[in-house]
Amino acid sequence: MKLFTNFLQIIWKIWFLIIAAVLVIGFAPIIYLVVVFNRIYTFNKLKRLGANIVIFLMGFWVKIEGKAHIDYNKQYMLIANHTSVLDILLMIKIFKAPFVFVGKVELAKFPVFGYFYKKTNITVDRSSPKSKKEVYNQVENFTKKGLSVTIYPEGTIPDENIVLDPFKNGAFRMAIEHNLPILPMVFFDNKKHFPYRWTGGFPGRLRIKILAPIPTENLTQKDMPELRDFAYTSIYNELINEQMKGEFNKNG
Questions:
Q1: CATH number of 2-251
Q2: Distance in angstroms (rounded) separating the CA atoms of residues 212 and 184
């Protein structure tokens, strides 16, 4: 039975790759023109359409709590726990205004997708101090255009038994430097429904909670550790409370 379940899960994840490939290749000519002519808002609509299509065809539906915390007249540093490739799709679906991801440079190596990713987001080579420094300049360029920025501050997808890895400093340094309020989000179900491995996962409800924005105005880099720790604790407590509720319901 387990072998059969694993087989179905692998087929399901291959289906995910097929959907993603068809969308990227199918829309490639339109996306190319949009990118070349720098139509930021048109590109944002296209990527949201793509994300919604993938989420629907994979059998997921989304429940969002705390949407009132978003003010689309403001720019944010968007952060969330990182557990799955779904984190990217859900961020695109949740936040309707244009924004850019800060992501690892390896993503730019994928055919077709990599070209568009590099042109429309910020890539960083974590092994290069020069690349890390350049991120700050790129963030400034994008925020001047009115865009928000998304960083997953754990820096990578942690092992499945880890609730939340320690946060790195970059997102919080940049939020202070560019006076961006931090908008924390909590993804409760992505790890369970679409883990970062071939086996495991299943269609179902994906719950997201948007927490109250954390202001950064009047902060200096001396305040960065406290800001980082506060953001970490806010997300960690939500995950732990949810975990405890799950254990209580299981044993109750």
A1: 3.40.1130
A2: 7
